[in-house]
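User: Sequence recovery, please. Input:
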């Protein structure tokens, strides 16, 4: 398995403002879908961990830099890398481009969270091992 997770997302009409330019709050919703796809890709689909194991991966910090506008109908390329694994958190970096041109980037911290007690928990060992295997040296 490659250490860089890649996927694509088409900018839909509802993701854009009246001028056809991507509306930045929509980017966060799209990014959430990319995260969900990543977790399924590495073997921990949200529908299983949330409903059966009762833990989740909420965002506890996010920063974004917007380089160039994107437009309705463009298919954006997402590259996601794991850059740090903590006791109960993981830091990931997203690079988003269209046709080879960087459009925006984001660094995000997700935490392992007990969904019933509403507190952070250490990563389950199998999850920690998988995340560490994807760690990209900075």
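Assistant: Recovered sequence (138 residues):
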């Amino acid at each position: 398995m490659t250490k860089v997770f890649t996927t694509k997302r088409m900018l839909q009409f509802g993701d854009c403002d009246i001028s056809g330019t991507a509306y930045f709050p929509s980017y966060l919703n799209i990014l959430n879908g990319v995260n969900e796809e990543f977790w399924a890709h590495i073997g921990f689909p949200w529908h299983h961990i949330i409903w059966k194991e009762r833990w989740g991966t909420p965002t506890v910090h996010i920063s974004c830099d917007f380089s160039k506008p994107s437009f309705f109908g463009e298919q954006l390329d997402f590259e996601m890398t794991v850059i740090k694994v903590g006791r109960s958190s993981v830091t990931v970096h997203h690079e988003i481009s269209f046709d080879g041109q960087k459009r925006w980037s984001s660094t995000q911290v997700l935490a392992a969270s007990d969904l019933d007690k509403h507190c952070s928990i250490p990563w389950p060992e199998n999850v920690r091992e998988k995340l560490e295997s994807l760690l990209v040296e900075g």
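DSSP finds three helices and eight strands in the chain.
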